[in-house]
Amino acid sequence: AQSVTQPDIHITVSEGASLELRCNYSYGATPYLFWYVQSPGQGLQLLLKYFSGDTLVQGIKGFEAEFKRSQSSFNLRKPSVHWSDAAEYFCAVGAREYGNKLVFGAGTILRVKS
Amino acid sequence: DVKVTQSSRYLVKRTGEKVFLECVQDMDHENMFWYRQDPGLGLRLIYFSYDVKMKEKGDIPEGYSVSREKKERFSLILESASTNQTSMYLCASSPTGQGYNEQFFGPGTRLTVL
Questions:
Q1: What digits encode the pLDDT tens for the residues A54-105?
Q2: Which has the closest alpha carbon to A17: A86, A107, A105, A109?
Q3: Per-residue pLDDT, B2
Q4: pLDDT tens digits, one per residue of B38-93
Q5: Alpha-carbon B46 to chain mean position
Q6: Are B114 and B12 in contact (CB under 8 A)?
Q7: Chain A residue closest in CA terms to B98
C-alpha cells in the first residue's frame, strides 16, 4: 500500500527566509504527487502536482517542488516566505492502481515569525 | 471555478443523535469523498463514491454511512454520534481519471459531539 511521510510536524521560519518542507512516499511505481495548503479554518487548496515530465514543478504562490525518484521524495520549497504562508501543508500521493483515491501525509504546520 | 460547499461550518450534537453532513459540488465530478481530519493524523478517508448510488469504504468507515442519490450531492451520516467522532470533516470531489486528478475540497465542517 502506498504511504506518505512528512517528518516535520511543525516548522518555524523567519519572514523572508527560505523554506523546504519534506515529503517521502512509499510506492513501487511512478506515483502522482500533490502538495496542498490549508489556511486556518479553511479547506485544502492545491499548490502544485506532479504526474510526469519535468521533475521540478512550479505552483501557485511562488512554491515549487522537486520529484526525486531515487530518494522517493517530493519536497516543497519557497525561496522567501511571507507571513501569509503560515498554514498547514499536506503532501499526498495517488496512483493509477488506486483509482481516484489519494493518500495524505500527516501535515506540517508552518509558523512564520517576523 | 470548482466549488464544493458543505452545509455547515460548525455543528454541535449530543451523543446518540443522528447527524447528517451534506456536500454539494457544481462541476459535474464523478468522484466524491469524505475525510476526517484530526491533529497529527492528517486526512483519513471515510467513504468515497465514484458514481450515483455507488460507494466504497475508505480507511475508517466504522460508525459512518453515506448516501449519493444525485451526482452533485454526497451525504455523510453518523447513525448514532459518539464523542470520538468529534472532528473536522472535509468533503472533496474530482473528475474521473487514473489517479492524477486533483481533488477539490470544501471548507470543512467542525463537528463537536457532547
A1: 899 999 999 999 999 999 999 999 999 999 999 999 999 988 777 788 999 9
A2: A86
A3: 65
A4: 988 999 999 999 999 999 999 999 999 999 999 999 999 999 999 999 999 999 99
A5: 7
A6: yes
A7: A96
Cβ pair A96:B105 closer than 8 A: no
| A44/B105 CB distance under 8 A | yes
Beta-carbon contacts below 8 Å between A and B: 65
Which residues on chain B are in Cβ contact (under 8 Å) with A102? 103
Regarding beta strands B109-113 and B10-13, do their DSSP bridges make them parallel or antiparallel, or are they unpaired? Answer: parallel
Residue B5 to residue B3: CA distance in whole angstroms: 6
Which pLDDT band holds residue A28 (cuts at 50, 70, 90)? low
Residues B90, A43: C-beta atoms closer than 8 Å: yes
User: Does A60 touch chain B if contact means CB atoms closer than 8 Å?
Assistant: no
